[in-house]
Amino acid sequence: MSAAAPPSPAVTSPQVDLHKRKAIRKAIGAGSIGNFIEQFDYGLYGYMAPIMAPAFFPSGNRTAAVLGTYAIIAVACLFRPLGGTLVGRWGDRVGRKKTLLWTIVAMGVATALIAVLPTYQQIGIGAPVLLLLLRVAQGAVSGGEYVGAVAFIVEWAEPNRRGYYTSYASNSCFVGTLAGAGVAALTSWAFEGAALDSYGWRLPFLLAIPLSLVGIVLRRHIEETPEFVRATAEGTDVVKSPIREALRSQWRPILVFCGISIMLAILSYTWVTFYPQYLTDTLGLPRWMGLASNAISIAVLIPFLPLAGMLSDRIGRKPMLITGAVACIVLVPLAFWVGEHGTFGAAVASQLIYIVPEFFLTGIVTVCVAELFATRTRFSAGAIAYNSSFSIFMGITPFVATLLVSTFDTIYAVWVYLAVAAVLALVVVSTFMKETYRSQLGDDKFAR
């Protein structure tokens, strides 16, 4: 691994520093808005799934209908590797900015169209099929959006603050999820009974339209990343087939990222999509309490993520990942035990315990999706790695968690599912991962 380049001896004027900082802030905003929209949609869909289920599946078996709604997320996420790989290829060929401008338009349209879908009672099996097609389209585009946004921010960031700046990309995901939870809770409160079931659940999905317009404005007024401009100008890091090159030369970091990110996918999406429903359906809390307790824990985590990024910039990515994996194994069963007391206070306390491993993992896995790969294939290799692991397990986890609890009649079966992934991550990080927090972005960290 190459050492970080020493700072230039040239004197930099305050005006240049101010311009650079302003550009970085704009890059963070432009990169993060797409993550916000993606997670707003995902969080909203996850929280609304029990309400939406009767509209798209036959009535009579509520559990089967909810499982069907979650299964659509899982199936759609299986298409993310293909979509993400194609988007990644464009990102490495034509640039980060142009690609991300297109993805935010596609995501907004796909999300908004969910609001106008016909129901199962109206067109039968065509209703869930149309919902699946929209989720597939949204998932395919989102498969490249997140990786591209992270690469965009990392390539703009100062070398010794990449973890800190990238933490805002992670934060945008949680803010989006929190917004989805808040809108779902507000919708559940504002509409009751038949009104909620017939049209009330549809209205939040229309918010994707104004959100996408904001994203378009932000991304149109930001320059291409200096790192991509450098690679393009020199011509040495631009390849004709970035997907083939990524699979040929970056397969080791791809496997490393897969090994560490599965753990975070299971941890996060058990928490933000499955657990609020578990609190309601299994432990008997009112729906608003399940959503509110989840929203409180997300709100507590958000201001801590930049601190986690700063800490990883000082001590490295590997210590953070190892600590997070151990916390998954030790603290998650404690969180579940506290939550089983069945009160609102217990629900909040359980999730405050749960966010400890999130603190050590979320932003660090995020920055690794850019740092592990060389510039010439960063978008493509990152998309392959992210969507072959995180996206798939993100999609199937609510379904698998619901199925595990239904089968074994205990939430600790979900903990075993997470613990297996955490042990895998410990082995991968300890044995195969090379530290990246001091490396230059253009380096191939796994070159022989």
CATH topology group: Growth Hormone, Chain: A
Question: Compute the gyration radius: what is it?
Answer: 21 Å
Outline: globular
What is the class in the CATH system?
Mainly Alpha
Order of helices and strands: HHHHHHHHHHHHHHHHHH
Largest sheet: none
Name of the CATH architecture = Up-down Bundle
Average of pLDDT: 85
CATH superfamily: MFS general substrate transporter like domains
Low-confidence stretches: 1-14
User: What structural class results from the helix and strand content?
Assistant: mainly alpha
Our estimate of the beta-strand percent is under 5%
Number of domains: 1
Distance between the termini: 10 Å
Helical fraction: over 70%
Q: How many E strands? A: 0
Tell me about this structure:
Helix content is 78%, strand content 0%. With 448 residues, it is an all-alpha fold. It has a single domain, classed as MFS general substrate transporter like domains (Growth Hormone, Chain: A). The longest helix is centred in the N-terminal third of the chain and has 43 residues, at 14-56. The protein is globular, with a radius of gyration of 21 Å. 54% of the residues are buried. Residues 1-14 have low confidence and may be disordered.
